[in-house]
Amino acid sequence: MNKTTITKLPKSKVEIKVEVAAEDFLIFAEKALAEIAKDVEISGFRRGTAPNDVVKSKVGSVKILDRAAMMAIEATIPGVILENKLEPLGYPEVSILKLAEGNPLEYKAVVSVYPQVDLPDYKSIVGGFELKEAIVTEEEIKRMKMEKERHSREQLREEVLAAIAQKTEVEVPEILIERETEKMMEQLKEKTPRALNMSFDEYLKKLGKTEAELKEMMAKDNEVKIKNYLVLQEIVKSGKIEVTEEEIAQTAKKEAAAHEGHDHEEIKEELDEQAKEYYRENLRTEKAFEYLEGFYRK
Asked: What is the DSSP string of 64-112?
């Protein structure tokens, strides 16, 4: 029977300590020895036919124990993650704590996980905001009024989300910030020569910043964006907001009709999973904001 200890660490990480019982680890050691024996060449024996004790004396117990430890870790850690309902955001960093013949195997793994989001009373926060009608002059046409209303609504949505996020307790995983920052930096390096007709180094000089300073700025912005995203996803759960397949299909159909006659890639009748997820995410976000608008001050 394996023993497991889960310890919460800062920055949305957890430490998993596992002890694989000696009798269980012995099974992995036997499997490791059998695997190694297949490839070991020993004088006087055909490959894979030498007795286990001969193979063991040839390769040494350390190599067998190392292979057994890796096999045990690969076999046990997925079950530990599943049993403890962890949502890892990357591969765990594993280190062996105790490894000796005839003893239990002890190891620890540190992994970034999807953070716990503790929302404030967001309904009362939203209740302090008021959606005001856009003011337009007599000369402004209906289209401009609609654009102003859209801009006003989007700006208010940003303010509402920022107010909720400010009072939300959540540790944004560093791994998410790093991934987004690296992606943005690579895109910037690729697009700068084409869009601004200058090299990336020239662009940095124009900004008066080093690459490290620019990266730090991006990371700070991304931390805010990711926190807002996590908050919005938690509101989707709190409000029990769902998107149906029919809504996805209707949205795709409307978009296809809006682009009719323009130079664009045709929208497939049968949406692939990537396209469905794109529309699902957009619809979920829109529904979440519409849900929050129900709490605006009247």
From this structure: HHHHHHHHHHHHHHHHHHHHTT--BSS--EEEEEE--TTS-EEEEEEEE
